[in-house]
Design goal:
Elements lengths: L1 E4 H6 L1 H8 L4 E5 L2 E6 L7 H7 L2 H12 L5 H10 L1
Parallel strand pairs: 1-2
Antiparallel strand pairs: 2-3
């Protein structure tokens, strides 16, 4: 993982964005981590919105706690309809 200061980031944004496509870049302020630059080149905009949306992940966590059924059970139930 690469690390860069805010001052250096201001001078080398393009280089940092390019580097972030291969590995995360930690941006520091006064020697302490302040942000992480993550490359997303080639990713779908809608996927990025969902992947970074806390409400979406809360919904996923809630759903994972609910009881589920197997695919074969689902198909059996659909045939009855």
């Amino acid at each position: 993982m690469r690390s860069v200061t805010v001052r250096d980031l201001q001078q080398t944004v393009r280089k940092c964005v390019d580097a972030s496509q291969k590995d995360r870049v930690v941006i520091t302020r006064h020697g302490r981590p302040a942000a992480v630059l993550v490359g997303v080149e080639g990713k779908d905009w809608e996927d990025l919105v969902y992947q970074t949306n806390p409400a979406f992940w809360r919904m996923i966590e809630k759903r994972r706690k609910e009881k589920s059924i197997s695919l074969s059970e689902y198909r059996r139930r659909q045939k009855k309809k």
